[in-house]
Design goal:
alpha/beta, TIM Barrel, eight-stranded parallel beta sheet, 12% strand, 5-methyltetrahydropteroyltriglutamate-homocysteine S-methyltransferase activity, zinc, transferase
Amino acid sequence: MKDYKINNLGFPRIGADRELKKALELFWSGSITEIELKSKSALLREQHWVIQQEAGVDLIPSNDFSYYDQVLDMICLLGCVPERFKEAGPVGLDTYFEMARGQHCCGSDLSEGTRALEMTKWFDSNYHYLVPELNETTEFSIRSTKIFDEYQEALDLGIKTKPVLIGPVTFLFLSKSFDGSDRFSLLEKLLPVYGEILQRLEQKGAEWIQLDEPIFSMDLDENTKRLLKKSYEYLSTQVSQTKLLVANYFGDLDSNLEEFVSLPVDGLHVDLVRGVKDVSTFFKSVDDTKLISLGVVNGRNIWKNNYTDTLEIIDQFKHLKNQLCLSPSCSLLHSPYSLRPEDDLDEELKSWLAFSEEKLQELQDLKLILSGKGNALLIANRELHESKKQNERLFNKQVRIASEESRGEEFLTRSPFKERIIQQNKSLKLPLLPTTTIGSFPQDKELRRQRALFKKGIINHEQYDSFIAGQIAKDVALQEKIGLDVLVHGEAERNDMVEYFGEKLEGFAFSKKAWVQSYGSRCVKPPILFGDVSRKVAMTVQWTQYAASLTTKPMKGMLTGPVTILQWSFVREDLSREEVTRQIALAIREETIDLEHAGIPIIQIDEPAIREGLPLRDQQKALYLKWAVDAFRLSAAGVQSSTQIHTHMCYSDFNEIMDSVGRMDADVISIEASRSDMELLEVFKEQCYPNEIGPGVYDIHSPRVPSVEEISLKIKSILDYVAIEQVWINPDCGLKTRGLVEVEAALQNMQLATESVRAGLLQLA
């Protein structure tokens, strides 16, 4: 009988109660010292290693912990820190956080700092990574000891770990060349540094080292395949006793199968949750000395594993002589920590779920079943899944009928943009370069305290609503004081841009502590989308209408779009994502129409996740973009041409989706642009984008307040790409996570800069 090991690719780093988030924010505010931050972080790492050890994990990862982002950690390890951060020696936390946030750890002057590294999505996930900046003169050298220190830290606890790092070709792929040079040409300089890292880990006694190369799940040209082969031919010679494991995840190997299985390494990890194509032929040519890690438990969703289906997959590998490991499909970074605190979930729904700790238990269960000793576990699991299939909670006949009958309604068109913009301009009476924000305003401790008191029943609905009304009034007054042209209500009543809507919709459930890291200290708690979706009540009309009554200026209604609600939820797996998104779109359409009837002249339907959801394989992209854009159009179908539809998309590369952005036909699209120094606008210029656009003029993910002069230069640079009649002025994204002092200062500078540019244009005229 085959002996199976358990391999884990990575564990959530934020802690069961978001301890890392809290420690980071205390450190950034100057409330704790660097020593205290490091001490709290070391305690977290110890807890996580022990949890995995007690769960029977044989290959426990280290260096999967990060203070902010694993790609930023690699930038420090490889020593490719951009020159503007002026760091010559070992990279300290000051420089580390300045690269991430544009400001030193505890900087008190909000005007100080440096432009932070650009941020974008990690493949097709909602995790954000910091983009390495390279040029043809970039040099590499080891300038961080984190990976070595954490391996030794675990060793001192009596735990032998498997250090994890991003593979060299994936690292270069994730990077950006800022001088037009080929970033892959740097591989010759990069590989010796990787070799040195491996050698130092071998000297410390590492038995296994994991190198992540998720680009194997993408369409690769022959040159990239050649570079992957070259990299591992070299790296395999740099160690003699330590074994190398290359991990692919997030999709099929497909056309890269031959290159992957022939890598001259000791172990291979494959994602068998999202990459099940031709599973029976995956390793037909693999060297039988290689360890094979089978990613059979979903690392990116929360539904309990179907042991019967999983065992059928594993069975196809039983004939191999190779040592086999059972593993999550990818790092558990993308999963919540534990089901243990979730006593508010009903027992039936809870029985369908598995978070990170439970996923490790699932691997143990599968190992026991494969040993012939876990038949009772298999039977119980089979009965659970059979019962769930028949559960009436999952189905709503009326929703299914409405979805089917709405086919084609996404193409209900208002008048062409050139005609409707005339109507909108006539009614809105906005100046050139109208100023606005993306939607949310800061939520301070008192607001969060009031929300917690309401949830606990300590204050009643009337008291809570009174507080929210006061907060909205303050946010509207602040915008009027600054002089913004189009106002928002600030979203004080919303805990999260997705969870809030989920609470108003049928088909969703909610956890207490199912937090997942999005970037840095930013954590999200995705709702659990388990059943058919419909709108129970109006979701935003009351507060938007109230805010509109406080001003004579146009008020924007703020909605989250259907694709973003899908992408940022834990989504059911028994119904196609296309159908789930259509159901959500119909619910959002009802809200859009109600907002228009309530007299709201501008409605923003945010879709920051459309680009994020784009499949990694070219052959799958067209179908996804069709139903994703159709869902957006459906959510806006039914309003009049005089109602202006906005959307917001952030941290996206628009080059390959511009046709789809155009087909969305939003009157105004606002985008992140400041971290990329407006280069995202190039494609809008090339495509002669006809509608209006609001490129973000300052980075809201940094506490730094840009000056009037800096924003003025950004506005002028926008006009090099887009005609002035098309341009709106706004921040990069929502302001919820920022402090009120910095927000007021930044928005005031944004307004002053806009007025300055307007005045200059009038003088020229």
